[in-house]
Amino acid sequence: MKSNRIKILIGALVLILLVAVGVSQTVKRVHMHGDGMFSEHAIGFLTDYLDLTEAQQTQVKDIVAKEKPTLDSLHQQMKQGRDALRQLETSGTFEEAKVRAAASQQSQTMTDLIVEKARIHSQLFQILTPEQKTKMTKLMDKHGRGMRHGQQQQQQQD
After folding, report:
1. What angle do CA 84, 74, 123 make, to 5 degrees?
2. Beta strands, E only, the chain
């Protein structure tokens, strides 16, 4: 009976640790890349890579300008969440309820950020020609592989 309790407790602790690491890696990735695909540099690269027309460039800039306040707000919320978690971790007293509340809020903000970026990607894809969509999809696939490779290297260093 006591052995089962210990196994359950250990399993729960391992699960909590895995979730914490997953969230921290996601937060780290968002923090490192900022606006990512929506920065001026990235838009300039995509303009050249996809050979966007003047009209498409204008549409891209309009979409990004319209959504930028929301992205900026979500990035600020992510920063505040990181700061709050750091403060809770270094306060000297562990208060699980407060950490859980901060982690839950951070998770919701991350969800909102992912949804916002998906919304923007969808809007951007609507203005591309079929050929440009194919090129963009290949680039996104390559970028995704690169991100996974970078994460694996980071984990090996940690």
Report:
1. 160
2. none
Distance, in Å, from the CA atom of 77 to the CA atom of 27, rounded to the nearest integer, reads: 11
Q: What is the pLDDT of residues 118-145, one digit of tens each?
A: 999 999 999 999 999 999 999 888 877 6
Rounded to whole angstroms, the Cα distance separating 30 from 36 reads 8
Residues 6+ positions from 117 with CB-CB distance below 8 Å = 36, 37, 71
pLDDT for residue 105: 95
pLDDT of residue 109: 95
60, 127 contact by CB (below 8 A) = yes
Scored b (16 or more CB within 10 A) or e, 23-61 reads: eeebbeebeeeebebbeeebbeebbeebebeeebbebbe
Closest CA to 103 of 8, 16, 15, 7: 16
Tokens standing for 101? Answer: 């509340």
